[in-house]
Amino acid sequence: MADSKLSLKIYIMYMNRRSRPGQKAIRHIDLEVRDGELLAIVGASGCGKSTLLNIMCGMIQPTGGEVRIDGESISSGQHRIGYISQTDTLLPWRKIEENVALGLEIEGVSKKDRLDRARQMMEMSGLAGFEKMYPYELSGGMRKRAVIIRALIQNPDIIFMDEPFGPLDVFTRESLQKEILKMWGERKNTIVYITHDIAEAITLADRIILLSRRPSVIKNEYVVDIKRPRIIEECKYDPGSLNWRSRSGRISKTSYARKIWSGRRRWIRQN
Predict the structure, then answer these.
(1) Residues 57 and 91 both lie in one domain
(2) Which residue segment(s) compose the domain that 86 sits in?
(3) Is the Cα torsion angle 127, 128, 134, 137 positive or negative in sign?
């Protein structure tokens, strides 16, 4: 990972939805993501989570405001960015090792070096022996694991993830959650993670941002005080270790956090 300390600040006034010109998807976001932090963003369906993530990583230009990393615009190209989407983005005509090494190929790394690094990453993530296979020959979980290490192989400063485990079964999802935490613990990349699953957010994140309904603003922040490594079952049934922080910086009693779990998605929809 790069030596520079990351400070990602977002000042987005609003973003027009393409499908409905003039309708605001995001009203105002003012957010800082700390170096090495794993930040989860949650909210009701359609509230603008993916729109916000795409603005943060530079894929969409906001109609107002800016995104900066270490004081530099996200569009400056000064930092390495990793992106993992909801969909399967492996190239079907390439072998898995070639897919994993794609970013290094674009950077001009020699074929031998990039494939050696790809094979090393595949071995670390449990994909050893599948290097010569094509995406259609792998399960959904294995393909997603290949997508994740493809994003990690360039050692990005910050990784953006947009509900990467959405279509996967619960067992594969939990396995990949552990894999993400393992890799993050070794590398300490900054990760911004979109999810609609509260248990997943608590399992993975240092801090959780709750977005309001569209046009979205930051409704609340939650600091996750559960020690790592975390066990997902404990995160589901022991919400008392989650502290609530308002935008003014006040910390409430932990009993307030139980509202998250008493209503789960229903509570998020109400906000």
Answers:
(1) no
(2) 81-154
(3) negative
